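hiii, so i know i said id send this last week but things got crazy w the move. better late than never?? heres the sequnce for the chain we talked about at the cafe, plus the structure i predicted for it. fair warning i was half asleep when i ran it
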Amino acid sequence: MALRLPTVWRALLPLLAGLLVGAQASANTLTQNVSWTIDRAGTATKYRIVAYGDSIYAGYNGSILNAAKYSAPTVDAEYLSALWNADIESVRRAKSGAVASDIYNNKIVAERSYMQAASTRVVSFELCGNDGLQARSAFKGQSGTCSYAGLDSAVASCKTYVAAAMDYINANAYAGTKLKIIANLYYPGYAADNVPSACRDAGTGATVNVQNTLLPRIAQMNYWMCEYARQKGFQCADNFAQYMGADHDSNGDGQVDSDALRYVAGESEASYVARITGTLRSTIRDANTHFVSASSSYDYIQSDDTHPTYTGGTVSAGLFGGTTGTGAARYTSFTGGKSPIWNQLGHERMGYALSVANPPAP
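okay and structure toks below
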């Protein structure tokens, strides 16, 4: 006998199907907002982290209904809770698939009230990843003569909206905010991009290597994220260095790779790009295999070859709204300022990178 659904559910099925298809086809419309409070025993004092961004801060995991509970900003909330002996509310205002202009206009500006609350002590943001991903897809889809205009336009747009976002946050965040920080880009699909293009360069008539074409442009985006941060009173969590460089000295230059790849305050764009694309290029590795020692590695990227790996379960975040919840910290103290899994998963590593800049007191 066939199962017969109640009338109300039969009526809703076409609508739900349409919504699901629409959300998958238009990922840039998938808002994934979450508020999760780290509840520390013995204190009722609560401060807020506000994090604006795209699918990375959202904790996107391929679902249109839920996301990682412990995406990077909430991982950082655990560090802050221990450091300040306080409850920390992690407010993530994120939009999966959104380009930089969308995050700036529809999250940072339109949802400024979240960072204006008197409990706000940290404002964090990340953007430009989808500008790069969309430009890469368009470039890979070219035939005939290669055009680099789309890639260069993505770099220019990134610079514009990174600077605008910092200026806006400086003008609008609660006056008692102690830390403003940007998280820069790792390179998802680094290994997969080590292929020839379908198009041919106008000058040489030959195909070009996609990875060689994209890496300098990602380096430019990352340089300006960290350089604007230096100029405008922000900190910069260097995800590129944290994800793409091993935690040991693979080339014998006396530096741990993930340290050597970091942006150096005050260096020129040319110097930074030359280090990333030339001097230290041999030390860059796909983050699917992040070596924490010469013989041990962890996978920082999910099976979609784009989003960070995570642990700690999921929360509702997506098509039907977002979770507002509270829970005890997984870790209540951090030996040497690091959780036991700080370097084992993508979101844990990014949360650690954010935590390095945490102020000692609220």
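btw Confidence is low (pLDDT under 50) at residues 1-27. thought thatd interest u
miss u guys!!
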